[in-house]
Design goal:
Number of strands: 8
Largest sheet: 5 strands, antiparallel
Strand content: over 45%
Distance between the termini: 13 Å
Structural class: mainly beta
Number of domains: 1
Order of helices and strands: EEEEHEEEE
Strand order of the largest sheet: 2-1-5-6-8
Number of helices: 1
Radius of gyration: 19 Å
């Protein structure tokens, strides 16, 4: 059964994959989770129609716009995989991986849509993003390995 969902009622959870600790990214302004595959199509000389298509290289694009965060979130990102915090950039080739979970109740509260993405890497993590006379607002853009729950 199709249900409407109101984005302001949902809950975003982001966990550090190193120790499953929850990090606070709050003041959610928007979120987009989009699974994607690269595809290749086969055409033959005897037809203008596509013969077949195959998919490969799957990832899940994750975009989060938010108004505030716990400094521990940035410290974990700076520390890289296997650390719980760092006050400065760490010399490591293993980026911090996160699990992103979203729970959205339907408008009437009768059902909840759950989405979970594992092994999300954010290549950039803004520490300061704002202009004079405005609140700071941030955006994370990354990709995950796979959707581990859609229920």
């Amino acid at each position: 059964m199709a249900e409407p969902y109101f984005i302001s009622d949902g809950v975003l959870t982001v966990e550090n994959d190193a120790d499953s600790s929850t990090i606070n990214i709050a003041g959610l302004r928007g979120i987009t989770i989009t699974p994607a595959w690269e595809t290749t199509e086969l055409y033959t000389a005897d037809s203008t129609f596509r013969e077949t298509v195959k998919q490969y290289e799957h990832n899940v694009n994750v975009e989060i716009d938010y108004a505030f965060f716990d400094v521990a979130a940035a410290q974990q990102w700076l520390g890289g995989q296997g650390t719980t915090s760092s006050t400065a950039s760490t010399d490591t080739s293993d980026p911090m991986l996160f699990t992103v979970k979203r729970a959205d109740p339907s408008a009437d509260g009768s059902v909840t849509k759950n989405v979970e993405v594992e092994k999300v890497v954010f290549p950039e993590f803004p520490l300061v993003d704002g202009s004079q006379d405005e609140f700071e607002e941030y955006g994370l853009s990354g990709s995950g390995r796979s959707v581990t729950d859609l229920s």
